[in-house]
Task: structure prediction
Amino acid sequence: FVSLQGGVDNEVTLTAYITIALLEIPLPVTVVVRNALFCLETAANQKENHVYTKALLAYAFALAGNREKRKALLDSLEEEAVRKDGSVHWQRPGKEPEADLPYHRSRAPSAEVEVTAYVLLAHLTSQPAPAQEELSSAALIAKWISSQQNPNGGFSSTQ
Result:
C-alpha cells in the first residue's frame, strides 16, 4: 500500500486519502469529515511534511473550501517545484530524474505523476473559480503531465 502513497507511510497521508474520497462525494460534510479536516489542519502546520503529503493536503483543503490552508500549501509546494522546458512538476526528495537518452524520452516514476496531478487538482479546485494566475500555473503543470503519457495515451501505472 505504501507504493500507492507515493512512498509515504504515515497516518496523515492515509487520513488525507480518506478525507478526499469523502469530500468528493456530493453529500453534506459529516462530523467524521470535520474531525478529519481538523486533524489534517494540525498536520499541515508541520514544516517537515513530504511533498506528496503536501499535495494531498492541498487538494483536501481545496475540496473542503479552506482557501487559506490550500494557498499556504500551494505556496510551499511552489518552492519545491521543478521547472524545466516550459513545464512544472514535483518529484520526491532524493529521487533524481533519469537522464534523457538520445531518441528516447524517459518518463518519470508514477509517484511523480501522481503528486503533480494532485497539485494540479488543488490549483483547479477553487471556490470561487480559479484566478487567471492559477490557470496559468495549471497549464504548465498539465503540460508536464501530458508529456508523461505513453504512446497509447496512458501512464506508467494505474496510479
